[in-house]
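User: Last request for today: this protein with cytidine-5'-diphosphate, please.
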Amino acid sequence: TIKLWKFKDINDHQLYLYENLLKRNWTADLTIMETFRQALAKYRSELGDNAQIILHKGNTKRKQKINFVFHNRVAAIPDTIFEQLPKTNPFPQETRYRSCAVVGNSGIMLNSSCGKDVDKHDYVFRCNLAPLLPFKVDAGMKSNLTTMNPSMVLGRYKALKKTHSIKQYNEDISQYDGMLWNPCFAYEGNGQPTLKAFLSFKGKKPKMVCGNPQHFKSVLNFWQEKELTNKISTGFYLATTAIQLCDEVQLYGFWPFSAHYGDTRSDVPYHYFDDLSAAKADSEHSMNEEFDLLVQLHTLGILRVNAGSCS
Ligand code: CDP
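Assistant: Here's the final one, the structure of the complex with cytidine-5'-diphosphate:
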């Protein structure tokens, strides 16, 4: 059997169907995409300006109390963070980016030669500080918005307690352009390391930003009403957000399976840049349900899931 990383196994037959379905010619369906966008927007409508993707000085007041996404807790935004928020909303309001790539972290990126294709997009989203230069050929270099998660701060950077971890962190981060998206108000317990990560960066780029918990919640609510029960993964949140922000959305590196057929059957590591095993990866997301939804969105022409080689 082929493992679906995290959760249940799928059989060869299902995997084969997915691959062949994704290989067929794909065209965007702008009408259905707009319908989907409007459905998403309904989940933000009560929030007005507060629904924007990140916190900035225009939608947040000094010392404002902020609700956490995953905990029933409210905390005032620290002054040190508030000072560094962007002055205004950096995302277009009336217009959209023409074409966007969302790069997930699946090992399917290895030997894909998709780097050039990824970089051709006008706006590129990346997840959880995936390294750039060593994977330039397969995953590209462009980075407009990159997310960071608290487990990264705690694991790779040892909670940013030691000078050398902070130095390493500052060096690593400076490879990204655009924004570095922190889930500042997502998890109560891990909130502190995330805030520390935000404040420990002293470089000029990327711009540190805090994800807006209300925006995240609106996406979460949207999907929960469509039967997605678990916490959505970062990649799935970005894919949904990209539909809001972009005319066309293409996904790369979304493949939560341990094998791929292509020309010959090959094993697929969980990540393309480290040897994290699925067992160690947290199991809080429903990757099977998410992937199934992404394939449905692909079939409808709302986004494109690229799961093969680009050469
Ligand atoms: O921390 P999280 O599990 O959300 O993410 P990650 O392992 O750093 O990977 C980033 C995103 O890529 C995930 O949130 C998934 O949406 C996607 N992914 C995937 O589709 N297949 C994989 N084998 C690994 C990640």
